[in-house]
Structures are given as C-alpha cells and as structure tokens.
Design brief:
eight-stranded mixed sheet; Rossmann fold; globular
Length: about 230
Amino acid sequence: MTINADPQELAKFGELAHRWWDPESDFKPLHQINPLRLAWIQQLSPLAGKRVVDVGCGGGILSDSMARAGAQVLGIDLSTKPLRVAELHAMEAGTEGVEYREVAVEALAAEQPGSFDVVTCMEMLEHVPDPASVVRACATLVKPGGWVFLSTLNRNAKAFLLAIVGAEYVMNMLPKGTHEYARFLKPSELAQFCRDAGLDLQASRGLTYNPVTQRYSLGSDTDVNYLMACRRPG
C-alpha cells in the first residue's frame, strides 16, 4: 500500500515534537482550540464508553482529552517522534484509556473496518497528498450509526491572509511553513469527499480567532477554519 503522507510534513512535525505539550509553544493554538472541539464532539456524540480513533493525533492533545472524557482512544499517526511524546505524556499524566500506534489510516481501515463509534481527524487533511483517501478510510473505520469529525482550513483569499500571512508571518502564532495554501479545502470539496465515502453530513461549525481578546470561538463563520460532523448511515 502506498503511504498517503508527505515525508517533509512528517519531518516538520517530528522536529517540533518536544514542544507539543508546552501550551506556550508552537502548538499553543491547538491547546487553545482543544476545549472547543472536544465540547462540540461531546455535544453531538457523548464520548463516555465509546471506542474512538484519532487520526493524525500528533502529540495526543485531542486523544488525551477524549480519553479523560471516558472514551477508549487509539491515536494514530505516521510521525514517530510526536507519537513517542504522546505516549510519554500519557504515562506521566496517568491518562487511562489511550494508546498510540504508528500506522496509516488506510491500513487501519483495512485491518479494523467498522470498529469505532467515533472517528476524529482534526487539522490533518491539509497536510496529506490525498485527503479524499483519508476521508474514505475514516468512513470505513466507523461503525454504522457512528460519527466522523473532521476539521481543516478553507481555501480562499481570507484564509490565505489570516492562516498563513497573519498567523505564520505577522503574529508568529505558528511556525513559518506550517501550511501550504494549495492544500486547503473548501467546505464544498470536503462535503463531496464525505458524500462519496457514504457519509451523511450532520453539522458544520467555523472556528474564529479574535486578536484583541486572543480567544477562539465556534460559530457560523467557516471562511478560515471549519469543522464537519458526519454519520455513517445505520
């Protein structure tokens, strides 16, 4: 199986792995938005007792919080160093109900189809060569009636100005080169990937940042960052 990953992307996040759990580091935005996305997932599909796979888990920020919410979580990624950081953090923090594995989502889908109540894939689709393949694999992994949660970046001038020029070069919220504009996905494109994979779109939300209050919030503005919730028909 051809691995659906960009070696440069894996190396980039590998080099930053030691900073993953520092809330004031390059990953500060992930720490800030994590309570918002966790609450949204919980609202639509309460996690207690659920079996969850977190695709592209990185250092485990979302995986860890879902386990603390009562889920049995498998975090998967293809970048070795962040996975080791995730495992170390779980050990040091005493987080139960979470494990990590270096495996491609497509390979896991072939191995364990229909095995998970919830599948999450956050801030990853814009980093892979074939995002549609990831969505198909997520749809394969989830049980009938289960939920798939996705998030990524819109592709338009506003997203380019705010997510790349603003966040990476002006405000230094993210390391320069974190994102490649051509890989951003319009909501219509992601929605089509979901439909093609047999998923029913249930809800979408936008994630916005207020530079004055330095806070993120969920709302209806999907111009830059957005989330989608889908279900596999039962």
